[in-house]
């Protein structure tokens, strides 16, 4: 027991991650951060008010991509476990995934002509969005799978998760502010394309930088043949800890994505000041970024479960408050409070996944980082899917009206700001619920899952101690046999 605790609290030379590795993991997470932040805040509004696609068709696009995500994340995770090249198991996916994602990213932000039939728009953006999903999976799953391969120390993994979330948030803040500055409130199609080219170029560069800089470690045990994809998934779902961490990674980010995907519409139609988003976005993301080291420190002093329980309460209360605000000052205050706990729904589950890998190895006898990371990443993508599908079907049912300033061809040549866009009262009320009470309820659910998560620092230390004893006994038997 003592040995286990020592290992959990103070990493040895083999388990200590270098600063370079941590920074590279953060840079790799930045690829996903660009998409999550820029896409989270702007993609739904882009589809509705720049591409002028009907909300029901946008919901179908999001639903199809979500189902596709559930397939490709798990498949790519399993394939990466079986990949054997001179570059390692994970790095080849970074090499080819980077340029593929960059091209797909530009395609999804390219607005088709307004007179394009709605069905053709749906098919084009569905194909482009699926390509983004495939490219993002090829990178994000590998970044997640690398952490448990690089270190088995409990606190090192928390620190690595901190670097990853900092990297993702920092890139998200920078590129979301860049996108906001380029696009502004006029939302011209050419501005979206310029932003897309800049973001895509950086995605490509980041992916190849991680490929060149990271060093993989070979698996620590002999490879045991897998038993088929469905059985591999079934084994993962029998792991209680894995189910809880996936529930956290669905419910928490779904709440955040609901808020993100509707906040631009909320500012435009509820607060009557679309430009306030330029202030709210860096406040939320910036405070969230600054708070990450604080949450990592709290996790080091207590546990990851406690971090989520504290942060979840703060986040749920702040989100619930959004339902009642009607002016920009209150919106800025709420944004600051949300920023305090914004990283928690991402930081804690990401730091818990490597601990789950050990529990899975104890249960199956195999290291299955790839498929677990694939299923885990699927959880995050399902959260975005659920948020956007619920948003668009709700807006459709409430009677959402496409804005005349950007979707009425007869107004060509008139400055968008000279046209006043309005929505029915039912749509306004739906927007309030989608940024406030519904996300707050989901955060409460995720906090409950964190409270029930069974792997504490003490449990992890005992598991590592037992694993060390088993390896020692095996080595001693090998020596005696020799």
TrEMBL record:
| Keywords in alphabetical order | Cell membrane, Membrane, Transmembrane, Transmembrane helix, Transport
Q: Where in the cell is it found?
A: Cell membrane
Chief localization: membrane
This protein's membrane topology, according to the annotation, is: Multi-pass membrane protein
Report the InterPro entries cross-referenced here: MFS_2, MFS_trans_sf, Na/Gal_symport_CS
> Could you tell me which Gene3D superfamilies the record lists for this protein?
MFS general substrate transporter like domains
GO terms, molecular function = symporter activity
Q: Name one GO biological process term.
A: carbohydrate transport
Q: Where is the signal peptide?
A: none
**GO CC annotation: what is one?**
plasma membrane
Q: Does the keyword Transport apply?
A: yes
The keyword Oxidoreductase appears for this protein: no
Ranges annotated as spanning the membrane: 23-43, 55-72, 93-112, 124-147, 159-180, 192-214, 241-264, 276-298, 307-325, 331-350, 433-453
Q: What is this protein's record name? A: YihO protein
Q: Per the UniProt entry, what species is this protein from, by scientific name?
A: Symbiodinium pilosum
Q: What is the primary gene name for this protein?
A: yihO
């Amino acid at each position: 027991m003592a040995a286990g605790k020592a290992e959990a609290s103070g990493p040895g030379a083999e388990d200590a991650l270098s600063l370079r590795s941590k920074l590279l993991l953060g840079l790799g997470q930045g690829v996903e951060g660009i998409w999550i932040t820029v896409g989270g805040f702007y993609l739904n509004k882009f589809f509705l008010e720049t591409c002028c696609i009907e909300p029901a068709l946008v919901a179908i696009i999001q639903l199809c991509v979500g189902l596709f995500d559930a397939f490709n994340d798990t498949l790519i995770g399993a394939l990466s476990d079986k990949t054997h090249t001179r570059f390692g198991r994970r790095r080849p996916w970074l090499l080819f995934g980077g340029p593929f994602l960059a091209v797909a990213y530009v395609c999804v932000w390219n607005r088709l002509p307004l007179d394009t039939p709605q069905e053709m728009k749906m098919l084009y953006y569905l194909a482009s969005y699926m390509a983004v999903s495939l490219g993002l999976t090829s990178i994000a799953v590998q970044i997640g799978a690398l952490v448990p391969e690089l270190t088995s120390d409990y606190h090192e993994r928390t620190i690595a998760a901190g670097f990853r979330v900092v990297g993702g948030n920092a890139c998200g803040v920078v590129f979301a502010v860049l996108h906001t500055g380029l696009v502004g409130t006029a939302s011209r199609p050419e501005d979206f394309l310029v932003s897309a080219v800049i973001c895509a170029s950086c995605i490509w560069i980041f992916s190849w930088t991680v490929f060149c800089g990271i060093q993989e470690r070979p698996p620590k045990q002999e490879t045991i043949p897998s038993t088929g994809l469905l059985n591999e998934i079934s084994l993962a779902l029998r792991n209680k800890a894995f189910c809880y961490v996936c529930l956290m990674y669905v419910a928490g980010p779904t709440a955040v994505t609901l808020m993100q995907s509707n906040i631009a519409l909320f500012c435009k139609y509820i607060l009557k000041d679309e430009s306030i988003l330029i202030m709210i976005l860096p406040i939320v993301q910036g405070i969230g970024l600054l708070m990450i080291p604080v949450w990592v420190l709290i996790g080091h002093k207590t546990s990851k479960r406690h971090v989520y329980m504290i942060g979840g309460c703060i986040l749920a209360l702040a989100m619930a408050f959004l339902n009642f605000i009607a002016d920009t000052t209150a919106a800025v205050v709420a944004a600051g409070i949300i920023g305090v706990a914004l990283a928690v729904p991402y930081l804690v589950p990401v730091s818990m996944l490597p601990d789950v890998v050990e529990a899975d190895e104890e249960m199956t006898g195999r290291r299955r980082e790839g498929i677990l990371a694939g299923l885990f990443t699927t959880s995050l993508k399902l959260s975005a899917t659920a948020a956007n599908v619920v948003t668009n079907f709700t807006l459709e049912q409430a009677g959402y009206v496409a804005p005349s300033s950007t979707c009425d061809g007869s107004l060509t040549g008139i400055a968008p700001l000279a046209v006043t866009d309005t929505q029915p009262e039912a749509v306004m009320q739906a927007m309030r619920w989608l940024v406030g009470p519904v996300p707050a309820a989901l955060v409460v659910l995720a906090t409950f899952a964190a409270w029930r998560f069974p792997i504490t620092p003490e449990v992890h230390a005992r598991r590592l101690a037992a694993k060390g004893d088993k390896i020692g006994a095996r080595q001693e038997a090998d020596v005696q046999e020799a």
